[in-house]
Amino acid sequence: SEASGSDAFQPLLLITIITVQRRNDFHYVLQVASHFHRLLQKCGARCRSHRVLLCNVEADPSSHQDVRLLSSFFPMVSRGRTGGNPDPSLNQFEKEKQDYVFCLEQSLLVYSPEYILLVEDDAVPEEEIFSVLQHLFSARFSKPYLRNALYFKLYHPERLQRYFNPEPMRILEWLGLGMFLGPVLTCAYCRAAGRAGPSWCLVAFFALYSMALSELVGRHYGLELRRLHPALYNVVPASECCTPAMLFPAASARRASGYL
């Protein structure tokens, strides 16, 4: 079934899953759609203003078997193709960009939501996604420095989350960790060893030790502590990498589609 733009309901959040046909044994979009459906059911009344939209960008939309199954449960839009064969001069990146713009524009046209979460069909949501988004909507997005943001990335690969990274704020965070844990570990050591007081050499040693240990263990493991409460999540400047899950305010979605 095709989504209709006549629906007067305006959701707070529209989750648009952009999908293409993959190997038959993967069924990525089935997994992602079922996860979102389960989490929305679990969320209950707080998520009644959320909707899911499937965006089928397969060259032959009717060949996407998984979407045909899901079309009985979720509204769907398809990117129709004129002519039999795709343009051979169109490279993969340009095609993906055009598909992305199509899904963004259709999301605005069909539902006109306040926010669009554009998700690729292999991006499985975490259990706490809706509680975190609710906190962002109510407490964070009203801040002046976030009011005109173009988009918010909800995913960053683990390999790029280490401290040895070209992002300057990451180095400052690493130094801050050492400056905090160095004195704390020194005081704990002096108390356990019965020493009279700390020395700067000992503070420096424990600071460097904690910094080295955090890098060896992996910064991303420490970031897992954020899952204890939505307020522990942080909003930082986005890097260039990776777009599996992107959150757009409606006005920003219009700007982004114009830029692309």
What are the defining features of this structure?
2 domains; Spore Coat Polysaccharide Biosynthesis Protein SpsA, Chain A; alpha/beta; single chain; elongated; 260 residues; 8 helices
The H-level CATH homologous superfamily of the largest domain, spelled out, is Spore Coat Polysaccharide Biosynthesis Protein SpsA, Chain A
Ranges where pLDDT stays below 50 over 5 or more residues in a row are none
- Spatial ordering of strands, largest sheet: 3-2-1-4-6-5
Terminal residue distance? 28 Å
CATH fold field value of the largest domain: Spore Coat Polysaccharide Biosynthesis Protein SpsA, Chain A
Q: Briefly, what CATH class of the largest domain? A: Alpha Beta
Which architecture of the largest domain would the CATH scheme give at its second level?
Answer: Alpha-Beta Complex
H/E element sequence = EHEHEHEHEHHHEH
Organism: Ifrita kowaldi
GO molecular function: glycosyltransferase activity
GO cellular component, one term: Golgi membrane
InterPro entries: PGAP4 (IPR029675)
